[in-house]
Amino acid sequence: MNKSKTADAYYAEPHHFSDAIAILRKLALETDAEECCKWGMPVYTLNNKNVFGICRFKNHFGIWFYNGAFMDDPKNLLENAQEGKTKAMRHWKISDISSIDKTLVRQYLNEAITKHKQGKVLVTSKKNDKLEIPKLLLSCLRANNLQQKFDAFTPYKQKEFCEFIESAKQQKTKLARIEKITPLIKNGIGLNDQYR
């Protein structure tokens, strides 16, 4: 997947959901949020803080609400972005262009902005959080001379690699995951970069 450097480039890329996300973009631009591009996709911010983003995938498109857990969600449309991992982010998945209810989209976008302005955002403290690298991953980094490459990742991406290894229950699964991530680390690619 190409990583767009601007929102314009993201929306211009040919995709079977291009027309659908263009509608969402038009609605997003009607709000107070400022459009930018982060992680290769359009993100809409207030005071440089993420409020929502528009995304497209193979089988669906939709809106990420960075603090969606604080939204009322009267239609029960929002899903936890990744159960057990994400705390506040919620995703509204839409499967086809005919399912876009512009009035409802406006309502949700404006509620996300209102909640943001009210300070309804997840606050996390990262200063005292020391990342504990699993022994298996440490061994891999040393054996393949990849410590410097691993250290170049953001703390968030480092944590993703660590959780990927630690979440495996069986040793053989952990080893298979080590084998999978070694070339990613070597090439400076984050575990979930393909989805960003």
From TrEMBL:
It holds the Pfam family OmdA. InterPro entries: YdhG-like (IPR014922). It comes from Croceivirga radicis. This is YdhG-like domain-containing protein. Residues 22-113 form the YdhG-like domain.
